[in-house]
Specification:
The structure holds 2 protein chains of 2 kinds. By secondary structure, chain A is an alpha+beta fold. Chain A has 3 domains: about 60 residues, RNA polymerase II/Efflux pump adaptor protein, barrel-sandwich hybrid domain (OB fold (Dihydrolipoamide Acetyltransferase, E2P), Beta Barrel); about 80 residues, Beta Barrel (OB fold (Dihydrolipoamide Acetyltransferase, E2P)); about 80 residues, K Homology domain, type 1 (Ribosomal Protein S8, Chain: A, domain 1, 2-Layer Sandwich). Chain A is built from 6 helices and 17 strands. In chain A, the strands form 4 sheets. In chain A, strands 9-10-11-13-12 form a 5-stranded mixed beta barrel. In chain A, strands 1-3-6-5 form a 4-stranded mixed sheet, with no helix packed on it. Chain A has a 4-stranded mixed sheet with strand order 2-7-8-4, with no helix packed on it. Chain B is mainly alpha-helical. The two termini of chain B are about 35 Å apart. Chain B is flat and about 100 Å long. Chain B has a domain of about 30 residues. Classes of the chains: A alpha+beta, B mainly alpha. Strand 4 of chain A pairs parallel with strand 1 of chain B. Chain B: This is M-phase phosphoprotein 6.
């Protein structure tokens, strides 16, 4: 067993960087280097390790490539930092060279600027609220960051309330800050989430799967009975339906659908629709 | 005694404004250049060869919003919360509208016509509020256009 494990490790360490194009939708491991499409010009079986960056017309017309979560820039190449499947999105409006990212699975959330999250107010101190978002530090939320809030007109937020907001500052050096308004000053659905309902935690990958534009799960869930859901990118989901039983059923479905196949899901939904 | 010995004035004193009024423009320029030299010599700079900035074609972003088109996070089904349903429509179409190219807004009045109207409007309204003395400025040309307003005579501050 030790021998068999040793051989693949050696081959990985010795292999050259692969072209990103050939590895799309395949599993990549941390430490791998990927070449961008126009750097494969001189790539052949006898190609050397060092490839000088040629600033010819081809390189310049490529535009900016964005390396998303799970990837880092390493010279001219992309270095994989998380294990998962490599994905690529073509540029829509022609600017830039598209986006590469690694579709990985994790439960621990790291605050990212611009993400909409559900937080729990843990403390009120002076002019700010401390909100627990599941990261390493509680985020701070100023009381003026609500729609229509002024110094005299304070928002009605108590400890223990659920807040749906977005990050304006989120990096590894500073405490994350969140707000409940957008750049124009409008709430756009952010703010205190109402009474009742149930908050539960799922993996981050499931949230992204459920929020994908063509998600069948949500369409089927929406046909069951009237309900309201709020998704936070930090892995938290809040659901509310008319009765407690319906709310619990919904929570169970959403937690379980991560590991179910499409057939199993359809079976469960048909059983629910009958009852 | 006083005529023999010229009083030596310090450089700072000579640099003052009232001392420089008597100088010609040439000497003024020379003094300015000297001053600039002194200042630029005092500025610290790195004695390194010029480094060419490497233009990086790769941008790092940690957010999933760029990668995947995700829907808006608040949802309501079968009329449970009508406000949220309105928001859903608004936010999800906003995402799609950004992809679609903007269509030009149809105008009721074309730009050229607006420009023409304004040209004459400014003159006629201006005439209404101008005092009797100034009304002479608004003489009409042969074509009926208003001539441009002449510069008013204002008090000019005497130069040094």
């Amino acid at each position: 067993m030790a021998e068999a494990a040793g051989v693949p490790a050696e081959s990985l360490a010795g292999c050259r960087a692969r072209a990103a194009r050939t590895v799309l939708d395949q599993v990549v491991l941390p430490g791998e280097e990927l070449l961008l499409p126009d750097q494969e010009d001189g790539d052949g079986p006898g190609g050397a390790g060092e490839r000088p960056l040629r600033l010819n017309a081809a390189a310049r017309s490529r535009g900016r490539v964005v390396c998303g979560p799970g990837l880092r820039r390493c010279g001219d190449r992309l270095l994989v930092t998380k294990c998962g499947r490599l994905r690529h999105k073509e540029p829509g409006s022609g600017s830039g060279g598209g986006v590469y990212w690694v579709d990985s699975q994790q439960k621990r959330y790291v605050p990212v600027k611009g993400d909409h999250v559900i937080g729990i107010v843990t403390a009120k101190s002076g002019d700010i609220f401390k909100v627990d978002v599941g990261g390493s530090e509680p985020a701070s939320l100023s009381y003026l960051a609500f729609e229509g809030a002024t110094k005299r007109n304070r928002p009605n937020v108590q400890v223990g309330d659920l807040i749906y907001g977005q990050f304006v500052v989120a990096n590894k050096d500073m405490e994350p800050e969140m707000v409940c308004i957008d750049s124009c000053g409008r709430a756009n659905g952010m703010g205190v989430i109402g009474q009742d309902g149930l908050l539960f935690k799922v993996t981050l990958g499931l949230i992204r799967k459920l929020l994908a534009p063509d998600c069948e799960i949500l369409q089927e869930v929406g046909k069951l009975y009237p309900l309201e859901i709020v998704f936070g990118m930090n892995g938290r989901i809040w659901v509310k339906a008319k009765t407690i039983q319906q709310t619990l059923i919904l929570a169970n479905i959403l937690e379980a659908c991560e590991h179910m196949t499409a057939d199993q899901r359809k079976q469960i939904f048909s059983r629910l629709a009958e009852s | 005694m006083a005529a023999e010995r010229k009083t030596k004035l310090s450089k700072n004193l000579l640099r003052m404004k009232f001392m420089q009024r008597g100088l010609d423009s040439e000497t003024k320029k020379q003094l300015e250049e000297e001053e600039k030299k002194i200042i630029s010599e005092e500025h610290w700079y790195l004695d390194l060869p010029e480094l060419k900035e490497k233009e990086s074609f790769i941008i790092e972003e940690q957010s999933f919003l760029l990668c995947e088109d995700l829907l808006y996070g608040r949802m309501s089904f079968r009329g449970f919360n009508p406000e949220v349903e309105k928001l859903m429509l608004q936010m999800n179409t906003k995402n799609k509208a950004e992809e679609v190219e903007e269509q030009t807004v149809e105008l009721d009045v074309s730009d050229e016509e607006m420009a023409r109207r304004y040209e004459t409007l400014v003159g006629t309204i201006g005439k209404k509020f101008a005092k009797k003395r100034d009304r002479a400025i608004y003489e009409e040309d042969e074509n009926g256009d208003i001539k441009p307003v002449k510069a008013k005579k204002m008090f000019l501050k005497p130069q040094d």
